[in-house]
Prior knowledge:
By secondary structure, chain A is an all-alpha fold. Chain A has helices at residues 10-23, 36-43, 47-59, 79-91, 96-117, 120-137, 143-160, 163-177, 184-189, 193-210, 213-249, and strands at residues 63-65, 71-73. Chain A has a two-stranded antiparallel ribbon. The N and C termini of chain A lie far apart (89 Å). By secondary structure, chain B is an all-alpha fold. Chain B has one domain (3-169): Four Helix Bundle (Hemerythrin (Met), subunit A) (Up-down Bundle), CATH 1.20.120.530. Chain B has 8 helices and no strands. Chain B has helices at residues 4-12, 16-38, 41-59, 63-79, 84-98, 105-109, 112-131, 134-170. In chain B, helix 2 runs parallel beside helix 7 and helix 3 (41-59) runs antiparallel to helix 7. The N and C termini of chain B lie far apart (62 Å). Chain A binds chain B through residues 1-2, 16, 19-20, 22-23, 60-62, 64, 74-81, 84-85, 88, 92, 95, 98-99, 101-102, 105-106, 109, 162-165, 167-168, and chain B through 1-6, 8-10, 12-13, 16, 19-20, 22-23, 26-27, 30-31, 34, 83-86, 88-89, 92-93, 167, 170-174.
Amino acid sequence: MPASIRPTKLADTVVERLETLILEGSLRPGERLLPERELALKFDVSRPTLREALGKLIDKGLLYSGRGGATHVAALLDDDFTRPLAEMLRQQPGYTADYLEFRGIVEGAASYLAALRGTDIDRDMVDASFAKMEAAHQQEDPTEEAETDADFHIAVYEASHNMVMLHFMRALSDMLRNEVFYNRARLFQRRGVRELLLNQHRAVHDAVMAGDPLAARASSEAHIHFTREALQEIAEADARLEASLRRIAGEEVSHEQ
Amino acid sequence: MSSETFASLLRAHSDSAYDYLEFRRLLAGQASAFAAQRATPEDIALLRAALAKMEAAHAGNDSAAEAAADAEFHLGVYRATHNVVMVHIMARLFEMQRQGVFFDRQDLYLRRGVRDGFMRQHQALFRALEAGDAAAARASAEAHLASIVEALREVQRADQRRETSLRRRDGSGLVAKGRRGAA
Lengths: 257, 183
């Protein structure tokens, strides 16, 4: 029957607080925590208590010690989730299409939820990410625009408020940044593509800002569909170019006829 | 860091069950539609075998075997999409589910009514896949996921209701003797 009410150990309360921050995505993989002294002040606990909490989180694999005794946030889905996938994709570049097919489904769902549930704060974040993308669009070099592009999608995942989706898609997004699925620079270099991509993101942005779930889903799906077609175009153009080069070099092996 | 990291964190925060089921629901419809369009005869044979295992376990009241065959069936559907990225991600999710990260499957499977419903839903999904009917596959998969969410909510509420009943029967233990019912 009503059990006695005992205060939770202070260190465990700190653990729980940090766990929630990691799970909801407020603390991001790789981020470095404040020095112990400052963290202890923030939580209003003693340094031994804080140290005990950090130790527990390190044991659980949620934090890790970096250089100079700094404490960092670990990725929730780490190497043993992404490595086999990356390996598979390296061996079979054709799987890029599978990645984009999967993204198309998830992206549509994420935008739908973001438009449905995004709080005013989430919408501010989505708005700010898109503003950064627009600014980066003005630069000749597309590298930064590609980065802001990936950040924009993360902001949408965050606004969806589905933690399971957020962490899986974050892991995939990191792979995307590492060019596992395809060469993003090639995509952005293609004439007219940057402009089209920006407009597609604007459509997603507008729908999320307006709180229109169906429009958000449709524009996200259209965006991924376009990316898929553009990459296929590039692959075909590459194949044609290679064929021409082989012909010029006279290296073409003659088969039938 | 290990693959256990994410799992242990989710286990500690129980409302992740609904995020997990929502994520699955968002994927299940389209994945099942793809599976209906793309399944090879070999895929269908594997699904039929998983379903047969499920039916046998259901008839024999073996809830653990039924839950295992259930997961095998769903993974089979994802394999039948022939999308390797999807299979990789869903295999990880099902592994976490098998470990009881999101909720205790036994909680659901111990309820005969819930299992009867799940059984019929799997049979309907299988028929749609076998017939190559994408629209029907999508609808059955979505209905199935909706019904898992509903069942889980009911189980959790039933647990709370039981605790309330127990407190009512045994008293709260907070009232001074002889004062109960005093006007």
